[in-house]
Specification:
The chain contains one helix and eleven strands. By secondary structure, it is mainly beta. The chain folds into two domains: 58 residues, no CATH class; 98 residues, Immunoglobulin-like, CATH 2.60.40.10.
């Protein structure tokens, strides 16, 4: 607001806009008559991990009730761009996954190679942590890949479980 901004009331007198600086005298009293949206919770004195968890869950529930934390559990949708790819040796093959968290949170990706067309028990591909992965086409044969999508938060507790994609079959033929 500019230096010459004046105080005024708007919206039928229900909102007061104050321009400039507000100085409260040392003996002033401010009364907030709004209902307290979050009930008082004393500091935790829990001596076991189980009781600390109980105290934390009470706090989280109160934050949800007050509308300060989203009460709806987010969901994760995962789909593949392609489930079967055929290529010639030396040809570039980029596998892709589409994943969305319903609340827009960041996601993490980890690609795996497998010996069969399943999305469990594969071998982690070091450094393959993007939504796309360039599969090897250096030799002829059939390979299988899948990607596990997870929440990219540092917390120990996640809003949803990790979700593996379907297996992708990559068939490489000699040129």
């Amino acid at each position: 607001m500019g230096y010459n901004t004046k105080n005024y009331r708007e919206q039928g007198g229900e909102k007061t806009v104050i321009g400039g600086e507000v100085i409260l005298a040392a003996d002033c009293i401010i009364t907030d008559e709004r209902p307290c949206p979050i009930p008082y919770i004393p500091a935790s004195t829990a001596s076991t991990a189980a009781n600390v968890v109980k105290d934390l869950n009470v706090l989280i529930n109160n934050l949800k009730t007050a509308g300060l934390v989203e009460p709806t559990v987010p969901t994760l949708t995962v789909s593949l761009v392609e489930t079967e790819v055929a290529a010639l040796m030396g040809e570039m093959v980029v596998l892709g996954i589409q994943a969305d968290a319903s609340d827009g949170r960041e996601l993490a990706y980890q690609w795996y190679a497998n010996t069969g067309a399943t999305n469990t028990g594969g071998t982690l591909i070091s450094g393959a942590t993007a939504s796309t992965y360039e599969a090897s086409t250096s030799s002829a044969g059939t390979s299988y890949y899948y990607c596990v999508v997870s929440e990219a938060t540092a917390g120990a507790t996640k809003a949803f479980s990790d979700v593996p994609s379907e297996a992708i079959t990559v068939t490489v033929n000699e040129a």
